[in-house]
Amino acid sequence: MTKPLLSVSNLVAGYGDIQILWGMDLEVGEGEAVCLVGSNGAGKSTLLRTLSGLLRARSGRVEFRGEDITNLPPKQILSRGIVHVPEGRRLFGPMNVVDNLLTGAYLRSDKAQIKRDLDHMLTLFPILAERRHQATVTLSGGEQQMCAIARGIMSAPKLLMIDELSLGLAPKVVDSLGAALRQIMHDGLSLLLVEQDVATAFELTSRGVVVDSGKVRISGPTADLAVNPMVQQAYMGLA
Ligand SMILES: Nc1ncnc2c1ncn2[C@@H]1O[C@H](COP(=O)(O)OP(=O)(O)O)[C@@H](O)[C@H]1O
Ligand SMILES: [Mg+2]
């Protein structure tokens, strides 16, 4: 792995009396794409929420670029370069595409660079340029996902965390999202991808972490995980 950008050790979190994460460990290297896979309810979204400061860690440590960021407020985590594209996208439906994208940059003050980044996103996702003045509630699911990802990138992050990239989207749409993500990675961003479709997750990332009941069950290069009989049987629907 390259130099660690994100380093999570022994992370414990939950809701009220219910503990969900039981000592999670995870690393994402600089420029690396890592996927988190696992059954429904394994704790993947809970992990992303804890990393972005929406949920408090009860113990354990999160380091980002060598700094302890455990339990910093969400805004501060965002300003350090971690952005979370939540499941279900959570766009501001009545607002148009461009205004939604600009909300992603609300902590930034570099106006000229924001404008350049906006243009870059509209080039990367031409369909968003076409629909730039449309309310996002009128977009298709795939277009909304593009908008949510582009809005995330408008915060100028170093680490992009996406929760459920492909859920509910047609394979063709997922392909074009994948191509855009590759381009974004090429620009130097790191990716932590939560993805229920394990084959898609393994295609888009070079290292994978299989989460089971709030713990890491197995992790390694996705090329190895993809041919691991346990992973194939338990998570890929292959005999
Ligand atoms: N707000 C919440 N309050 C209580 N339990 C929750 C809440 N959100 C999720 N959970 C529970 O936490 C567990 C892990 O959920 P989640 O992290 O969403 O899993 P995954 O994303 O891997 O499907 C599940 O049992 C889920 O029911
Ligand atoms: Mg989830």
Tell me about this structure.
- It is a single chain.
- With about 240 residues, this protein is α/β, with parallel strands linked by helices.
- It is about 35% helix and about 25% strand.
- It has helices at about 45-50, 75-80, 95-105, 110-125, 125-130, 140-155, 170-185, 200-205, 220-225, 230-235, and strands at about 5-15, 20-30, 35, 60-65, 65-70, 80-85, 160-165, 190-195, 205-210, 215-220.
- The strands form two sheets. A six-stranded mixed beta sheet has the order 6-7-8-3-9-10, sandwiched between helices.
- Strand 7 (about 160-165), helix 7 and strand 8 form a beta-alpha-beta unit.
- Helix 3 (about 95-105) packs parallel to helix 6 (about 140-155).
- It is globular.
- Bound molecules: adenosine-5'-diphosphate and magnesium ion.
- Adenosine-5'-diphosphate binds near residues 38, 40, 43 and 45.
- Adenosine-5'-diphosphate binds near residues 41, 44 and 45.
- Belongs to the ABC transporter superfamily.
- It comes from Rhodopseudomonas palustris.
- InterPro entries: AAA+_ATPase, ABC_transporter-like_ATP-bd, BCAA_Transport_ATP-bd_LivF, P-loop_NTPase.
- Involved in beta-(1-->2)glucan export. Transmembrane domains (TMD) form a pore in the inner membrane and the ATP-binding domain (NBD) is responsible for energy generation.
